[in-house]
Design goal:
With about 140 residues, the protein is an alpha+beta fold. The chain has two domains: about 35 residues; about 100 residues, Jelly Rolls, CATH 2.60.120.380. The protein is built from two helices and eight strands. The strands form two sheets. A four-stranded antiparallel sheet has the order 1-8-3-6, with no helix packed on it. A four-stranded antiparallel sheet has the order 2-7-4-5, with no helix packed on it.
Length: about 140
Amino acid sequence: MSVQMSESSKIFRSKPLVVSIITLLFLLFYSFNVFAASSSTTISSSNPNPSGPTVYCGDLYINQFWAENDSSVNFYASFLQSTFGFDRQVKKTTISDYEQYSTTHIYTTYKGDYYPHGEWTGESPLNYLQGGIGIVSK
């Protein structure tokens, strides 16, 4: 009793290298087009001046900049471009009591690394400061 193989299984058995290359190319294409880079940091009374890790922006647009204040203490939320010397501030806003802020599609003039940054305004007692800041770049 002999088992006949179908035409498609013969192709895949005879050309495993071709199948491997096609699979690898598909995975590379998928990974570069789907995933976004993001960075976030938490501002609190124990860390009133935090900075998050950098993310690369190659298309001159930060897709989202967000901030959330979970306290009654105001703070500044910004994101900066990482450069040699002084870092260039791209956007800065004041986040008020229990405010949620989000903006999308922000144009940047240079390709490069960007990171979120928070800073206590100094207007209220630092004891209850709590919030988060982040950026997303595809």
